[in-house]
Amino acid sequence: MLSTDSSKRISFDRLICDEDLVIVYERHDRIKAVKVQKGSVFQNRFGVFKHSDWIGKPFGSKVLSNKGGFVFVLAPTPELWTLVLSHRTQILYLADISFVISYLEVVPGCVVLESGTGSGSLTTSLARAVAPSGHVHTFDFHEQRAALAREDFERNGMSSLITVTVRDIQGEGFPEEFCGAADSVFLDLPQPWLALPSVRRMLKQDGVLCSFSPCIEQVQRSCDVLQSGFTDIRTFEVLLRSYEVREERMMRTEGDQDGDLAGPFSRKRKQRIPHDANNGSGETTTTTTVMARPCREARGHTGYLTFARLACS
C-alpha cells in the first residue's frame, strides 16, 4: 500500500518493522492480517512463528515455524486487505473494484466522494489510486461502522489519504464544501436516486458517477433520475470465474496406444496405489503435471454498476 508517511510506506523493497501490519499467507483461501509485535507469536497448524523472526525480513519472505512449517508474510495490498478485512457490511470484491476504478477514471491527484463506507474494501483501493496527492472523502450514516473503518485505515497506513465522516447522504446530501470539487462520486445506497441532485452539484465538469445496486429495480429508478443532468449512462454486471492451479500426479499405463493419461491422483492417494494396479497388463508409471480447474465456490451476482457522466452545461 501507499502512504504519505515515508517511514511507514509499504513497498516491496522495505523491510518488515515492529508494529507493521502484514498478511500471513498459508494458501489462497487461508490468509490473515497480523500486526507484528516483538515478543508475540503466531500459531497455526504448521507450528509457532515468532514475530521477532519476521522483523528485518523483506515483504514476501518465507518464514519458518518451530516445527519446520512455513508461511509467507506479504505486504497488505488493497487486494489482500479485501480478503481479510472484517465484514461489517456486504463488500465489493476485486472484479467490481477494478471495474469501478477504471470507469470512474480515478488517477493520482483525484478527489473522490464515497457513500457509504461500509467495511472499507473499495475505499482502500480508491485511496491507493488517488495517492499521493489526491484524497478520498467517505461518508457513512452509521457512527460505529464509521469509527471501525477509521481504525482500519489507521492500521493499514491509509488514514492520511482518507477522511471518514458520519453523515446521511440520502437525507442530507454531500457537504456544500465539496460543491464542484469532486472528480468522481461513488454511491452504495439503498435509494441512490435521492442523492443524485447533490451529486450533480458536487461533480466537476465532465465528472463521473458510479452507483452500486444489488437489485435491477434500484437501477431502473436511478436511471430515470439520471436522464436529467447526466449523459453516457451505462449499467454493467461483472461476473468472475476463478480457477485453482495445482500440481497433481497422473497414472499412465505403458503400452497405451494413444498415450492417454489414466487419471489424476493426489500425492497422498498415489502412495496407496499398488505396483500391480494394472493387473499385469503393463508397467504403471506416474508423471507430475500442473492442472487448472474451476474453483468449487464461485461468486455469482454481486450487484449492478451504473455509470453516468455529468452533462456539459
Mean pLDDT: 87
Shape: globular
CATH class of the largest domain: Alpha Beta
Number of strands: 16
What is the total domain count? 3
First CA to last CA: what distance? 38 Å
Helix content class: 10-25%
Strand content: 25-35%
CATH superfamily of the largest domain: Vaccinia Virus protein VP39
Enumerate the strands of the largest sheet in spatial order, edge to edge or round the barrel. Answer: 9-8-7-10-11-16-12
Looking at the structure, the CATH topology of the largest domain is Rossmann fold
Computed structural class? alpha/beta
Q: Number of helical runs?
A: 9
Order of helices and strands: EEEEHEEHHEHEHEHEHEHEEEHEE
Q: Looking at the chains present, what oligomeric state does this protein adopt?
A: single chain
Radius of gyration: 25 Å
**Which spans have pLDDT < 50 for at least 5 consecutive residues?**
258-275
CATH architecture label of the largest domain: 3-Layer(aba) Sandwich
The biggest sheet amounts to:
7 strands, mixed
Protein name: tRNA (adenine(58)-N(1))-methyltransferase
Family: Belongs to the class I-like SAM-binding methyltransferase superfamily. TRM61 family.
Main location: nucleus
Domain tRNA (adenine(58)-N(1))-methyltransferase catalytic subunit TRM61 C-terminal: 69-309
